[in-house]
Automatic annotation (TrEMBL):
Keywords: Developmental protein, Differentiation, Flowering. Residues 148-167, 211-249 are annotated as: Disordered. This is FRIGIDA-like protein. The keyword Oxidoreductase does not apply. The keyword Plastid does not apply. Residues 153-166 have a biased composition (Polar residues). InterPro entries: Frigida. It comes from Handroanthus impetiginosus. GO terms for biological process: cell differentiation; flower development. The lineage of its organism: Eukaryota, Viridiplantae, Streptophyta, Embryophyta, Tracheophyta. Belongs to the Frigida family. It holds the Pfam family Frigida.
């Protein structure tokens, strides 16, 4: 950002260019940094940067700010422009670097790589619209976005994904980019945006409808309910065993109660004698508040 601000000060109060103000010592130091930096740019992935490489921009800005671009091959520098074609400073940066005459070749590279939006922007910036028709480039861009990929790798798509879904998403992105480009360069008379906006609404509505249909089709888990017809185990016929609680069958559901219940021992002879006449308290760890049933999780 500092180099960009310095570069924008093209003249000082006396009318000298910034490159004349910078000391020779500073230029030599900047040149040494640039010469060490340049080979590393050869490893940058042009496609991965998608025209928005900060590193390539910083390198070119270093050359422009210190006025050392003439020490580097102009053809090599022009090959870095597609890496920064989406950045708003690109056109001005190219002028500082003396690359204006290289723009037709740069725009041609962008078109061949499916970057028509960037090509249109640079064509307007360098008055090359007669050589590169903006309307033709934008229509070509939309046409390419509608194409279904010729092959898809099996196993790399999610269950809900499909090539057509990818095409719809790509077309939606392309439509929005084209609409913005038309508005920026006032091309509405040559390329009306109303039909394009209608297509955007149709695709977005189709996406929303499909999402709702998918959610409705998802199986819904039933929420378990306490005391919904299930019966607690009968204790009357349970054999006398000291480890009574540990012998309860696992198939019985667990319930949460508001309080622990106490039962008085009966006086007849139908109940095992170990209950007797004493009060028998169920442990909270068995039927009391120590247990809670599990509820289903809804997405």
């Amino acid at each position: 950002m500092l180099m960009e601000c310095l570069c924008s000060l093209s003249v000082d109060l006396d009318g000298d260019s910034l490159s004349n103000i910078v000391s020779e010592n500073a230029k030599e130091r900047a040149k040494a940094i640039a010469e060490e930096w340049k080979p590393k740019l050869d490893y940058l992935d042009v496609d991965a940067s998608n025209g928005n490489s900060l590193e390539a921009h910083a390198f070119l800005q270093l050359l422009a700010t210190f006025g050392i671009n003439s020490d580097f091959d102009q053809e090599c520098l022009s090959k870095l422009i597609p890496m920064v074609s989406r950045r708003r400073q690109t056109a001005e940066l190219c002028r500082f670097l003396g690359l204006s005459d290289k723009m037709p070749g740069v725009i041609d590279v962008l078109v061949k790589n499916g970057r028509q939006i960037d090509a249109v922007n640079l064509a307007f910036a360098f008055e090359l619209t007669d050589q590169f028709s903006p309307i033709s480039l934008l229509k070509s861009y939309l046409s390419e976005a509608k194409k279904v990929p010729s092959s898809a790798k099996p196993g790399n798509t999610s269950p809900g994904a499909s090539p057509q879904n990818d095409v719809n998403e790509k077309e939606l992105t392309a439509l929005k980019a084209v609409i913005k480009c038309i508005e920026d360069h006032k091309l509405d008379e040559q390329f009306p945006i109303d039909p394009l906006q209608k297509q955007v609404l149709e695709i977005e509505k189709a996406k929303a409808d499909k999402k709702r249909a998918t959610e409705v089709a998802k199986p819904q888990s039933k929420r378990p309910r306490a005391n919904s017809g299930a019966h607690a185990p009968r204790l009357a016929n349970v054999p006398t065993d000291k480890n009574l609680h540990g012998r309860m069958p696992d198939r019985y559901p667990q319930y949460a109660y508001d309080r622990t219940y106490s039962y008085a021992g009966p006086t007849d002879h139908h109940v095992p004698s170990y209950v007797g006449t004493a009060t028998y308290n169920f442990s909270p760890n068995f039927f009391g508040n120590g247990y809670q049933y599990q509820t289903a999780y809804f997405h």
